[in-house]
Task: structure prediction
Amino acid sequence: MKYIKVIFTLMLAIGLMNLANAQKNQPSPPATASGTIGDASVEIKYHAPSARGRTIMGDLVPYGDVWRTGANNATTITFGSDVNVEGQSLAAGTYSMFTIPGENEWTIIFNKVVEQWGAFNYDEAEDVLRVTADASSTDEFVETFKIDVVSDGVTIAWENTMVKFNVK
Result:
């Protein structure tokens, strides 16, 4: 009986170590961007895929289609107080954040349904706000998808593309 307990404990420990390593080595690991814009705290939770030699914008991420803005779960954004996004009011709270990428302009979407996998069940009727933001080229190639909270807004960058939407 003593040996069975030892073997069971060892098997459990090995299984837990494998699970921990699998989570660390995800192809699109979880990431968080946070900061303060004016008086508002901002936190964005997303999964960060890498390009890995693929063509991203206009191919893996098609132009004109709703995108979850990252990988796996839909990206979420939380504002600690009411804000203006590209000049339009948005109440404090947590939203899923989708985008519709374009070559020169992206639509940024804030949606009421927070718990979503990808954009598969995205429902435009649940949108709280849609704004547009200009897309530009990056100075350097961005291998891993990245979202940042900056002093006056939020930036999204991947491959050779960067989009910034203003928040006040």
Summary: The chain has one domain: 28-166. The helical segments are 2-24. Residues 28-166 form one domain. Strands lie at 30-37, 40-47, 75-79, 83-85, 88-90, 93-100, 105-111, 127-150, 153-166.
